From TrEMBL:
Top-level taxon: Bacteria
Entry keywords, A to Z: DNA-binding, Transcription, Transcription regulation
Keyword Cytoplasm among record annotations: no
Species assigned in the record: Nocardia tengchongensis
Record lineage: Bacteria, Bacillati, Actinomycetota, Actinomycetes, Mycobacteriales
Claim: tRNA-binding is one of the keywords in the record: no
Protein name, as recorded: TetR/AcrR family transcriptional regulator
Length: 185
């Protein structure tokens, strides 16, 4: 296996580990074990646990950007900004939210934002994604704020394991899920 392939395996293992245990509690030994490599090899590839986490965040946020760009191509050429946001949101829900570890890692990035390097990284990504949504849809700042607010709610629900209308959902979850379309995503 090439170093690039091994690096990709380590990133996949790290994504799962950080999604499961968070940044602070995840050990590079755990990631190495999941990837089937030694812990020194993980460090040789990425330097530190922080640098590995930043690489995972870059990959997760890159996936959101890819989903936004693809979603934007699905909107009708003459669609309104709101309809473009709705198309983007639908595509986001179908892809990012179904890749369970990605929303959890995104939230872990936000939770670890007190670390200066992680905070700078996640703020930069968040800002770029916000601006990209505005650029791709032509929506107003107010519309994009609402879109992101609803998107963050969906990320939270996904992290909580509440993604479908189920009979055993708590009433608050059913209420949120039944009324999502009213809020613009």
């Amino acid at each position: 296996m090439t170093a690039t392939e091994r690096s990709a395996e380590v990133l996949t293992a790290a994504t799962a580990a950080f999604a499961e245990s968070g940044y602070a509690a995840t050990k590079t030994d755990d990631i190495a074990r999941r990837a089937g490599v030694s812990q020194p090899y993980v460090i040789r590839l990425f330097g530190t646990k922080q640098q590995l986490f930043l690489a995972v965040l870059d990959q997760v946020c890159g996936r959101i950007e890819e989903i936004f760009r693809t979603g934007a191509t699905l909107a009708e050429p003459d669609a309104s900004p709101k309809d473009r946001l709705d198309t983007l949101g639908g595509h986001f829900g179908e892809h990012f939210l179904t890749e369970r570890d990605l929303p959890r890692v995104f939230l872990q990035g936000i939770a670890a934002a007190a670390d200066p390097a992680i905070g700078a990284n996640i703020r930069d990504h968040f800002g770029r994604l916000y601006n990209l949504a505005k650029e791709l849809t032509g929506a107003t700042a107010s519309e994009v704020r609402r879109f992101f607010g609803t998107g963050m709610l969906l990320i939270d629900l996904t992290a909580l394991g509440v993604t479908e209308l189920e009979a055993d959902n708590p009433p608050w979850a059913t209420e949120i899920l039944e009324n999502l379309g009213e809020d613009g995503i």
